[in-house]
């Protein structure tokens, strides 16, 4: 019972937390890059390359979370199994 509860919690909250954290991180990276380009327009190319690399690394963490979501979702019990466990 505890296993299924923790599994449901991980599947249900893991991906949304990863997505929200990545969205905040990507927003901060974008804002910092725009601020850097505004301060030094001649370095825009280098800043943009660094920004794209940072965004790709942040997005890869979300993709790993999505893969884990799809790996853990089939391990969740169906409704009949949950009702059987709860009635005991």
Topology:
Blueprint: H1 2-39, H2 44-72, H3 79-87
Helix pairs in contact: 1-2
Tell me the count of domains: 1
Radius of gyration: 20 Å
Alpha carbon gap, first and last residue? 11 Å
Q: What is the element string, with H for helices and E for strands?
A: HHH
Helix share, percent: over 70%
- Counting DSSP E segments of at least 2 residues, the number of strands comes to 0
Q: What do we call the CATH homologous superfamily?
A: F1F0 ATP synthase subunit C
Shape: rod-shaped
The first-level CATH class is given as Mainly Alpha
CATH architecture group name: Up-down Bundle
Structural class by SSE content: mainly alpha
Strand residue percentage: under 5%
Write down the overall mean pLDDT: 92
Are there runs of 5+ residues with pLDDT below 50, and where?
A: none
Q: Could you name the CATH topology?
A: F1FO ATP Synthase
Largest sheet, in brief, is:
none
Number of helices: 3
Which terms summarize this structure?
0% strand, 3 helices, single chain, 88 residues, mainly alpha, rod-shaped, F1FO ATP Synthase
Summarize this structure briefly.
With 88 residues, the chain is mostly helical. Helices cover 86% and strands 0% of the residues. It is built from 3 helices and no strands.
Give an account of the 3D structure.
The longest helix is centred in the first third of the chain and has 38 residues, at 2-39. The N and C termini lie close together (11 Å). The protein has helices at 2-39, 44-72, 79-87. 86% of the residues lie in helices and 0% in strands. It has one domain (2-87): F1FO ATP Synthase, CATH 1.20.20. Helix 1 runs antiparallel to helix 2.
């Amino acid at each position: 019972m505890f296993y299924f509860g923790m599994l449901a919690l991980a599947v249900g909250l893991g991906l949304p937390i990863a997505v929200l954290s990545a969205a905040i991180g990507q927003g901060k990276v974008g804002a910092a890059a725009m601020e850097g380009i505004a301060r030094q327009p001649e370095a825009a190319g280098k800043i943009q390359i660094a920004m794209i690399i940072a965004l790709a690394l942040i997005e890869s963490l979300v993709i790993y979370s999505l893969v884990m979501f799809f790996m853990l979702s089939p391990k969740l019990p169906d409704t009949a199994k949950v009702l059987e466990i709860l009635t005991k």
